[in-house]
Structure formats: structure tokens, C-alpha cells
Amino acid sequence: MSMSEAVRLLSSCCQLSPPIDASTEKHPLTASGGHFILKEDGTETSILGGIFFADQKVTRLTKPISDDVDFSNEDLVAFTRSLKRVLHNDAGDFERTAKISVQHEKANNAEADLITITFPDGRGIELHVGTLDKPNALTGKRDFVTADETLGSGQ
Questions:
Q1: Above 60 in pLDDT, residue 77?
Q2: 20, 36, 97, 110: most buried by Cβ count inside 10 Å?
């Protein structure tokens, strides 16, 4: 999509920050030309996502995964750093191929989704995201997540 078409479509509901007339996409140090997409309702500033331009075309469009998550939460930050540690076994930038699967599981006292990330070397990550039938006696909570690093398939 062209930059002008995207800006025209977004102008009916949103505003860009920095504004498109800031010429960010022509600045050599910001070749990706990123802009926040902000809700235009006058009452609050809400970031709906980001849009990136190069050569007068949209190259990337992003949006937050969830509005219900505090992305500054210490536990979430610690989890994400742990996930990065598992994914990253070398120094510097890296890229790895992985197989990702999601399966629904039922147990006697809960239902969960198992998210599995498996690497070619057999290592991986398993995340169980679930809900107990009754609140946990210790925490009083029904929802849970478990996160495990798998060190090989055993085959």
C-alpha cells in the first residue's frame, strides 16, 4: 500500500506521531520511518499501533498484542528475559528456525492450552496457559501459566 493511501485511510480515525509532515521517512537515519498510530478521540492518548514507511510505501504495520497486559510488570519483564535467554545461545544478534504448535488439553480439574516451541536440535519451550475449575487453595486464583525449557526430545 502506498504511504499516501495509508495516511488517507488512517486520517479518518487516528493521528500519526510524529505527524507525517515531519518527513521522518526521508531522514537518512530513520529509513524505516516509524510512526505511532494514536486514537483520535480527544480524551486520552492511546497507542493503537505503529506504521513504518520506506520509499513512500508501507513496509510494516504493528499493534499491541493485548490492551489488558501491563507490559511494565516485573514478572512479565522477567519472563520475557528468561524466554530470550532460552532462545539465544550465542553472543550478538541471531536467528533460529522453530516449529510452533498449540494444543488444547483437558484435565480432571482444569483446561489449558499448550504452546510448544521446538528447535531443530530438540530443545524447546513449553507454555501451559490454563484455567482451574476451582480457585487454587493457596493463591485464590483460577488462571495459571507454567513455562518450561525442554532440553531434548529423548530420541
A1: yes
A2: 20
Whole-model pTM?
A: 0.65
d(CA 67, CA 114): 22
CA-CA-CA-CA torsion sign (81, 83, 86, 90): negative
Beta partners for 143?
Answer: 131
Secondary element (H or E) of residue 128: strand 124-132
Instruction: Give the integer Cα–Cα distance in Å for 40 and 137.
Output: 45
* Site of grid cell 488512517: 10
Which one is predicted more confidently, 145 or 30?
145
Cis peptide before 64 (omega within 30 of 0): no
The strand order across the sheet containing 14-17 reads 14-17, 34-39, 47-54, 57-62
CA distance 20 to 42: 19
Cα–Cα distances in Å, from 148 out to 69, 86, 152?
21, 10, 12
